[in-house]
Specification:
The protein is α/β, with parallel strands linked by helices. The protein has 14 helices and 20 strands. It folds into two domains: about 25-210, Rossmann fold (3-Layer(aba) Sandwich); about 225-365, Rossmann fold (3-Layer(aba) Sandwich). Strand 7 (about 105), helix 4 (about 115-125) and strand 8 (about 130) form a beta-alpha-beta unit. The protein is globular, with a radius of gyration of 23 Å.
Length: about 375
C-alpha cells in the first residue's frame, strides 16, 4: 500500500493492473528458445536465438476471435491453424504426436519421411513437396496457401528467405528446436507446436509423459561408477566435426552413464578437429558412435585404415544411429527421435550398460 501511495496516478494504474492481471506463462522446464505468455483471449510466443549467432527476437501473436492491438513487430496468426507447410521432418514428428497430420499440405523432403501415416498421405497427393532450403517451390506454396509455413534458420541468409516468404503473403514461423542443448528441451517444443493448434493441454500431457519416462531412466544410471568413454563422428574432407560439451549429444551420453570425450567444454555447437588430433585423442576410447551414413566396419576402414587401430574398433564397440533408414536414406533418428528422447536414452543405456536394462536397440545398431 505504501508503494501505491508513493506512485503517480499513471504508475498506480500500472501497478494495480499488474496485480490484478499478472503475467501467466506456459510452464517451460528445459527449452531455452521460446516462452509462451497466456493472455485472456490470445497468446504471445517470443522466440530467441533461432540460429547460432542470432540475437534477434521474434514474436507470434495467436488469437481466436478478435485480433489484439499492439505488438508492432509481431506476426498475427488466427488459431487453431487448419493447414501447415513444414521445412523440417522434426516438425512432422511434433504434428503427428498431436494427431494433426491431416493439416500438413506441403513438406520439404517428402522422399525422406519415415512416418508411415505421412508417407501414405504423400502417395495420395495430400502432401506435396515444398522444395529444399535453397530452392523452395514458391508457386506450390502460394497455391496451397497454408496458414503457416514452419521453417528453421541456419545463418543470416535465413532472414532474407523468410522475408521473401512473408513478402509473398506466406506466414513464415521460425522453429528453433534444433538449437536446444537438452534432449528434453528439444521435445518440449511440442508445446510451441501445440499452441498453433490450440492444443496446449494435449502438448503438455504428451511432454509430461515423455519427461517421466526419461527421468526414470536417469535413475538407473545416476549411481554408476564405471562410466565408459565414448567419442563420435567421422571426418569430412579431413575435418572432424565434434559436438560440444553443452549439446544434446553430450547430455544424452551423460544421462546414459558414459563419459563423452569432449564433454568438458561449454561449446553449444560443433567444433572442428583435425583428423590426426582425433586419432590421438580417441585412440583408447572404449565406444565409438554416430558415424553418419556408415553401415559396416569395412566402410569405416574404407575411409581410413588407421581407424582400425582405435580401441573401440578393436573391441567391436562401434554403433551407429541409422538403424531406421528408409529406401532413400531418410533417418528416423532425425525425425521421430525428437519426440522419443527416452527411447534414444534406452538405446544408449543398452549400449553402455546392458546389465541395467532389457531393451532391443531401436535407433542404434551395432556395426559388423
Amino acid at each position: 500500500m505504501i508503494v501505491l501511495v508513493a506512485c503517480s496516478s499513471v504508475d498506480e494504474e500500472k501497478v494495480v493492473n499488474a496485480i490484478e492481471n499478472p503475467k501467466k506463462y506456459v510452464p517451460i522446464k528445459y527449452a531455452e528458445g521460446f516462452v509462451i505468455e497466456e493472455k485472456l483471449d490470445y497468446k504471445v510466443i517470443t522466440l530467441n536465438g533461432a540460429w547460432r549467432g542470432d540475437d534477434n527476437t521474434y514474436q507470434y501473436v495467436l488469437y481466436k476471435e478478435e485480433k489484439p492491438e499492439g505488438y508492432p513487430n509481431a506476426a498475427f496468426i488466427k488459431i487453431p491453424i487448419q493447414t501447415i507447410a513444414c521445412m523440417s521432418l522434426t516438425h512432422v514428428a511434433f504434428i503427428e504426436a498431436l494427431n494433426q497430420i491431416n493439416s500438413i499440405v506441403a513438406l520439404s523432403g517428402c522422399d525422406y519421411v519415415s512416418s508411415k501415416a505421412v508417407k501414405k498421405r504423400i502417395r495420395k497427393g495430400k502432401i506435396r513437396e515444398a522444395g529444399q532450403y535453397q530452392s523452395f517451390n514458391y508457386e506450390l506454396l502460394l497455391e496451397e496457401s497454408p496458414d503457416i509455413f514452419m521453417v528453421f534458420g541456419i545463418n543470416e541468409s535465413s532472414s532474407s528467405r523468410i522475408n521473401k516468404l512473408n513478402e509473398l503473403g506466406l506466414t513464415a514461423v521460425l522453429n528453433g528446436e534444433h538449437m536446444e542443448p537438452h534432449p528434453l528441451g528439444k521435445t518440449e517444443w511440442i508445446k510451441f507446436m501445440g499452441a498453433f493448434y490450440d492444443l496446449d493441454k494435449e502438448a503438455e500431457k504428451f511432454f509430461n509423459q515423455i519427461e517421466r519416462e526419461y527421468l526414470s531412466l536417469i535413475d538407473l544410471t545416476k549411481n554408476i561408477k564405471n562410466k565408459p568413454s565414448v567419442f563420435v563422428g567421422l571426418p569430412f574432407k579431413g575435418a572432424w566435426y565434434v559436438p560440444g560439451g553443452a549439446t544434446f549429444v553430450s547430455k544424452f551420453f551423460i544421462d546414459a552413464g558414459a563419459n563423452y570425450l569432449w564433454g568438458e567444454d561449454n561449446e553449444k555447437g560443433s567444433t572442428i578437429k583435425n583428423k590426426e588430433v582425433v586419432l590421438d585423442e580417441a585412440y583408447y576410447t572404449e565406444f565409438w558412435l554416430n558415424q553418419s551414413g556408415i553401415k559396416s566396419m569395412s566402410e569405416i576402414t574404407d575411409v581410413d585404415k588407421k581407424f582400425s587401430h582405435f580401441k573401440a574398433f578393436k573391441k567391436g564397440n562401434v554403433f551407429n544411429n541409422n538403424k531406421r533408414l528408409n529406401v532413400n536414406g531418410g533417418n528416423d533418428y532425425w525425425e521421430s527421435g525428437v519426440i522419443n528422447p527416452h527411447i534414444i536414452l534406452k538405446d544408449l543405456i543398452e549400449i553402455f550398460h546392458p546389465e541395467l536394462i532389457e531393451h532391443e536397440l531401436y535407433y542404434y545398431q551395432k556395426l559388423n
